[in-house]
Amino acid sequence: MNIRDLEYLIALADFKHFRKAADFCNVSQPTLSGQIRKLEDELGTVLLERTSRKVLFTQAGLNLVEQAKAVLREVKVLKEMASNQGKEMSGPMHIGIIPTLGSYLSPIILPKLRALFPELDLYIYELQTTTLLEQLQSGQLDCGILALNKASEPFIEVPMFHEKMLLAVSKQHPWANKQSIPLAELHDQEMLMLDDGNCLRTHALDYCLSVGAKENPHFKASSLETLRNMVSADAGIAFIPELASRAPAPQQLHYLHFNDPELYRSVGLIYRPGSPLRLRYERLATEIKHIMEEEK
Asked: Which of 224, 211, 196, 202 is nearest to 258 (CA)?
């Protein structure tokens, strides 16, 4: 048994699919499957129920996955302690970022971070909030960038910037001649939403609940780009984060600011409590904060 075998096992538990787990681990599917079988032989127990459609873990397998996560967390701490003996901003750093930020924030910050810290190897993984938090907890990620919320509270949170929330409407919409509206104007309006698993959906539902707006039950988008295209086609209205609004948009799209109150989400960097690389993460967050201040 080795550390890589445990990483294969955890990936399979996360994805419950051999090919997806193998892709994540950058190995072939036969390699991953073979190593899992060797692990079963070594332990003398069945870890998986293999069917043609899905992967099911036995109780022994589930127990081993939890223990493997604990082992990898300790290995991560050892690596961090060793890394901390060298230069503060050098070596690999694995960063998770949520999809509603990744495509829009990464092009802004990555070139400047690489120029500032040429010896820091940044690896970026776009993950939904739940998966990001799980992988950070298990030690698969070093830190994460996301919209801070209750789920991120068990980690150390370093706020970096506030991102305004805008209202997207089509240019055929009656509000297309406005520049801003009070939030209360959304009373009884139906909103287009992202699907489950996106933290932006949680924020949007909270806004709707506060003023009596509701979700359009006939449509859910898997990405902000799908959401923007549906709004442009005059299929409804939607909340869109400001960074996404700066990306090239469909011609029939118009954005309104909220003026009473102004809506925003708090974007921050999170990392595990007790990490020996605390100063590295804090420095990274500080530089991202400065970069975003210059962008205003």
From this structure: 211
CA distances to 24, 82, 129, 134 from 220, in Å: 27, 46, 18, 25
Q: How far apart are CA 98 and CA 197, in angstroms?
A: 10
How many Å is the maximal CA-CA distance in the chain?
A: 70
SS3 160: strand
Q: At what angle do helices 129-138 and 3-15 cross, to 10 degrees?
A: 160
Query: In this predicted structure, what is the pLDDT of residue 266?
Result: 95
Grouping H, G, I as helix, E, B as strand and the rest as coil, residue 31 is helix
Model confidence at 71, pLDDT cuts 50, 70, 90, reads: confident
3-class secondary-structure state, position 77: helix
Distance separating alpha carbons of residues 200 and 221, to the nearest angstrom? 12
What's the CA gap between 119 and 136, in Å, rounded? Answer: 23
Distance, in Å, from the CA atom of 253 to the CA atom of 234, rounded to the nearest integer, reads 9
Q: 81 or 271: which carries more pLDDT confidence?
A: 271
- Find tokens 């959906």 and name the residue: 201
74 band by pLDDT with thresholds 50, 70 and 90: confident
Q: Does residue 136 contact residue 176 with C-beta atoms inside 8 Å?
A: no
CA neighbor of 198 nearest in space, from 96, 97, 99: 99
Q: Are 256 and 181 contacting, i.e. CB atoms less than 8 angstroms apart?
A: yes
Mean pLDDT of the chain: 89
Rama region for 2: left / alpha / beta (φ>0; ψ in -120 to 50; rest):
beta
